[in-house]
Amino acid sequence: MKSRLRYRGRLGQAGLYLGKFLRIFVYQNDWKVLPMAAVISALVVFVVGQNLFVTQEGTATGTFALVCVCIWIGFFNSIQIVCRERDVIKHEHRSGLHMSSYLLAQIVLQLLICILQTGILLMVCRYAGVHIPEKGIIFGKGIVDIGITLFIITFASDMMALMISCLVHNTTTAMTLMPFLLIFQLIFSGAYFDLPKAAMGITFLSISKWGVISLCSIGQYNSQPMVTLWNTLFKFRNIEYMGRKPLLEIIKGMEQENRVNDFLLWSAEYNQNDMYVSDDLNVWITWIAMLLLALICIIIAIISLESIDKDKR
């Protein structure tokens, strides 16, 4: 390998290593990330898919769950992929390997894997009967816009895990850090936890924040009905007050006048979120933000590996 690496350019080395990584993917069981993605996607979509892109509550819960699936899949793709062969990389770097070529090959492989995993997730959503918006915001088709968002979330998460794999020195450390990365993404998504103002700036470094905003924008969150208020009224419909059941009377009146849907849309007006505005600028911002995070992770990964010869451990 030493003589071959010395006389190859960066692109030549990248092609050589891409072929090597593809063979490892096929023959050393790395392909198992694909059926694993299908199983995880199916489990999550089975639980949250019924009201996804149908009601505000269903969209908020479902998009957060989909983002978590993509992040978990992306992390698992590459969290060990570099550190498990660190000694080999160090030896080949001394023989003439360019780290940018090595990482370019890894990135291309991970990009292909992320595309396949996104396709699997979309197929699972289709077969599960998820109501995917017909109309998109950027490319005219809702499934295209949603597919691009899911891919970018998965790829950005993959690159973050790749960065960690380049920074640490063994797989044990990498797998120890992985839960902390997941917890960070969950907490700082801004979707479910009320964060103090001092912590709001950290959310801009979270892939999950941009992913939820993108999916809710494409899914027309602000145009969907809200069912929480109606369900609450229905739950307490039989409560008596001064010998009457006022909530039951209100519910029956709206049902007789076919105004239930109007009530759901009216209540939704007070639950809209300015971050989920359905316009092309909002979606482009989320895509660019996640890709910038991926780029930053790639740069840090390259810098880390370029100094691998200084590693004495």
Textual characterization of the structure:
The protein is mainly α and 313 residues long. It has one domain. The chain has 14 helices and no strands. Helix 7 packs antiparallel against helix 10. The longest helix has 29 residues. The mean pLDDT is 88.
Structural class category: mainly alpha
Cα separation of the termini:
24 Å
| Mean model confidence by pLDDT | 88
Low-confidence stretches: none
Q: What is the domain total for the residues?
A: 1
Work out the helix count. 14
What is the helical fraction, as a range of percent?
55-70%
Number of strands: 0
Radius of gyration from the CA trace?
A: 24 Å
Shape: elongated
Order of helices and strands: HHHHHHHHHHHHHH
Taking the sheet with the most strands, its summary is: none
Instruction: Estimate the strand proportion.
Output: under 5%
